[in-house]
Design goal:
α1 runs parallel beside α6. This protein has a single domain, classed as HAD superfamily/HAD-like (Rossmann fold), CATH 3.40.50. By secondary structure, the protein is of the alpha/beta class. It has a six-stranded parallel β-sheet with strand order 3-2-1-4-5-6, sandwiched between helices. The C terminus is likely disordered. β1, α1 and β2 form a beta-alpha-beta unit.
Length: 219
């Protein structure tokens, strides 16, 4: 029987956003996230990190540095009873400086390549899984793979103009996002109708159907 997973973006979702973190101590878990993730894991979801790491293509840090950061991240979560099933990262960036990594690939979000790889390697049913991220590229990747999606509102994303970038739900923070997963599983109560205030304002003179769809997210 296939597993179900909760896929999480790393920077800005699982840990505090930071411009190209390079050291293990740069990865600071959001308060309360590990505890809530443990509860979701106990409900039968495999926690999997899906992250773009274009800093490798720019030479900002090495593969060794990245592995050290991810060992540290696993250890921090294990202290709270969370065992990551896997961490997938895309090392590419089309504008990078390292030639072999400066390519257009199938794994860099918003493309869903890392999700498909995780599903194949861990027997995951993507249609029963969730993707939680703080930008619409995360949402698009999750939607393209067939997952349900939650956008964590950091106040950085404008209302989506394409159906593929419309999240199933929007959350105030990552703890709220994980509560939404459990609520949809019948194990928790959560606010399912949250939307960023700026998304509730009708665009002046616009009747764009994509905006109308975005206004009805989670209803």
């Amino acid at each position: 029987m296939s597993r179900r997973a909760v896929f999480l973006d790393r920077d800005g979702t699982l840990v505090h956003a930071r411009h190209y973190p390079k050291r293990p101590e740069d990865l600071r878990l959001y308060r309360g996230v590990a505890k809530e993730l443990r509860t979701v894991q106990e409900a039968g979801y495999a926690p999997v990190v899906i992250t773009n790491q274009g800093g490798l293509a720019f030479g900002y840090f090495s593969e060794f540095d990245l592995q050290a950061m991810h060992v540290y991240l696993r250890q921090e979560l294990e202290r709270e009873g969370v065992e990551l099933t896997d961490i997938y990262y895309c090392p590419h960036h089309p504008k990078g400086r390292i030639p072999k990594l400066s390519i257009a690939c199938d794994c860099r979000k918003p493309k869903p390549g890392m999700l498909f790889r995780a599903a194949a390697e861990h027997d995951i049913d993507l249609t029963q899984s969730w993707f939680i991220g703080d930008i619409l590229d995360d949402v698009e990747a999750g939607n393209s793979a067939g997952c349900r999606t939650v956008l964590v509102d950091l106040g950085t994303e404008k209302r989506p103009r394409s159906p593929r970038r419309i999240p199933t739900f929007i959350a105030r923070n990552t703890v709220h996002a994980l509560q939404i997963v459990r609520a949809e599983d019948g194990r928790e109560q959560a606010d399912l109708g949250y939307r960023p205030a700026s998304w509730n304002k009708a665009a002046r003179g616009s009747t764009n159907r994509y905006l109308e769809e975005a206004q009805h997210v989670a209803q």
